[in-house]
Amino acid sequence: MLLLLNLLAFLAVTGYAVYLFAQLVYSRYLFIKLGKKVDYKQDLKERINAVLVNGFGQRKLFKDKKSGLMHLILFYGFFIIQVGLIEIILKGFIRGYEFPFGSAHKYFSLLQEWTVFLMLCAMIYAFYRRYIEKLKRLQLKRDKKAAFVIIALITLTLSILFTLGFEQVMLGHHPDFSHTPFSGVIAAAFFGIGKTAGTVLFYVFWWLHLLTVVSFMVFVPQSKQAHEVFAMFNLFFKKSGPVGKLRKIDFEDETVEEYGVGKIEDFTRQQLIDLYACAECGRCTNMCPASVTGKTLSPMQLIVKMRDHLTEKGAAVTSRSPWMPSLVVGSSALSLGPAAQEAAVSVEMPNLIGDVITEEELWACTTCRNCEDQCPVGNEHVDKIIDLRRYLVMTEGSMPHEATRYFQNIERQSNPWGMNRKERIKWRDECDDIQVPTVKEVEEFDYLFWVGSMGSYDKRSQKIVQSFAKIMNTAGIRFAILGNEERNSGDTARRMGNEFLFQQLCEENIANFQAYGVKKIVTIDPHAFNTFKHEYPEFGLEAEVYHHTELIWKWIQEGRIKPENEVKEAIAYHDSCYIGRYNNIYDTPRQILKSIPGVEILEMERNRENAMCCGAGGGRMWIEETQGKRINVERVEQALKLSPTMIGSNCPYCLTMLSDGTKAKEAEEQVQTMDIAEIVARSLSAKE
Q: Which PANTHER family does its entry note (predicted)?
């Protein structure tokens, strides 16, 4: 009778828990389906690789090695104890049950016990990291749910060991310390209480374990632990192609009345999976230059707030579609079908922009992608921010006044300052013996040198252009520039949310390239490099695109140029975001510097993929910082800790920001700021 009651209670509890779990997961699936459907690229190999490397391989988690090891134990331990869970459940109905593994079962027991013990250690360490060490990124969002996770998993692991330990007491088996080292200690400690007491305690801990399992199962979809369900799907379905590439807007679609994302359901379904995949680990915010310097933007909070908004709106929207097949969750009927999207329009909810996410947060982003690079579940924060900016700029016409002026100057004169477009080539007058022909002055050329607005108009950046032109002259490279026919690349306009202006510039530039038969493009501007290489092809560009550091290194290897003269400098090298995290170019600039006699490379604490942004990306170059500490000053302070004689970069935007930073720290006389092209050119110059 007791066995029957136990079985009925088990079926009732687990059945109801599975039912609730299914409802909750299904509800999130329906909420995600409120988003816009996008074409799914069938690049199966790439997607499987993403799951294997970042999912099963836990690669990004090991950016923090201690945390990575802890999560690796928990991740794989979870699968092992699930197998053991089946056996433990059966033990509650079949006295002394064991899987029919024969003599190999003792090794299964050993594996299970060590797995449980290591998981227990991992959770104790998790408690230490959050509440004793108080790791900064884990303090970004303190709530009771985090404590529940730790308590639940500690209870889960301990209840397994106590269940197995009291089973040995119940059966009168003497502990086998060689194969049950931890439950065996428990059995030995309580062996004298007798079989009856052992049986009672066995079922006490058996039920404790079962209730912990089912409670945690129901808890998972309603908390940050939902990433355990959605992370793998997020890694598999995430946007494919070059990282950071933005989605194209079809302006010829006359049915579209609003551009960008003004409502949560305007995001794509791929983007909405991100929200439930978030683990709230704080890695993104911990590395965000805006957050680090006291701005209101927190990439983690951005995702969390949108997730909560989607959950709230999803429940309200789907409950208003009674004519669709529904599933009741609490008091909400969750409906699947296109009618749910129509119902979303009429639901009165807080505004996504303004109430949930502030404009201040959106404009604080530098689009550096440090958040995305850190995210272990593959979340993409930047494209969401850009989509929200697009709505502000193109639908509402709301933007900082500096952005308005920037767009006007680009539209009128094709440069950010609004200077006469006919003065774009004036920098060439100061080139002295350097040959810089335009496309109209030569019959043939191998490379089109895209000078860019910074190189054309900014006095400091002109020195980079001149240095690179000198290098090309020395290497015997046939190149030409567009001169006054060159326009702005449109990259910054796109990342500030003005997709229409970007596409206009893009089409004009591509037409110009085609008119002059351009097959290869080289530029000193990482932003133009990135958009030409990864975004222009979608609009028809067919050309090889190079950053100037790539070609400098190539020519050094080929012997076309040879840095011979000593440049005795200790250089703190700064990785540009759009060369580094966007294009994975880290070694090439360092190889160039190593080839220059006298140069000592100093690596900042934040370098390569972890390098901190200079603060200029995403249009921030043109928008004044009014909140917190200036990002460029923070970055320069990181460099100055190394006591360098020079800060090196590979981007005119970075060079400007770093130069301003050294001035702010009153260090410009002790520490120079130079582009790699300038350093190489100095090594090529005649000895004095």
A: IRON-SULFUR-BINDING OXIDOREDUCTASE FADF-RELATED, IRON-SULFUR-BINDING OXIDOREDUCTASE FADF-RELATED-RELATED
